[in-house]
Specification:
The chain has two helices and five strands, in the order ββββαβα. It is an alpha+beta fold and 88 residues long. It has a single domain, classed as 3-Layer(aba) Sandwich (Aminopeptidase). The radius of gyration is 13 Å and the shape is globular.
């Protein structure tokens, strides 16, 4: 299934049909050219659908598009980056 994520400057999220945010990932520039993924959330009704994985992948792509490095203080994002052999 394809999700239509919304992207803001330092956040990517998914809304349900009522406009409620049901999944999101937040990141911030902690130093010039380095972004920290610090928060990932998926509503319990959507868990097990790999949405968190898709959010981390989207954040990673957005950050690297900015020619920046990715680090993660969010435990889920950190595990995802390690699992996908992305140096942090």
């Amino acid at each position: 299934m394809d999700y239509n994520f919304c992207t803001e400057e330092n956040r990517i999220y998914l809304k349900d049909e009522h406009g409620k945010i049901v999944a999101e990932i937040d990141f911030r520039e902690i130093e010039k050219g380095v972004y920290d993924i610090y928060h990932t959330y998926v509503d319990e009704n959507l868990r097990g659908m790999k949405i968190a994985s898709k959010l981390v992948k989207a954040a990673f792509k957005e950050i690297t598009k900015r020619n920046s490095k990715v680090v993660a203080s969010c435990s889920y994002a950190k595990k995802w980056l390690e699992k996908n052999n992305i140096e942090i």
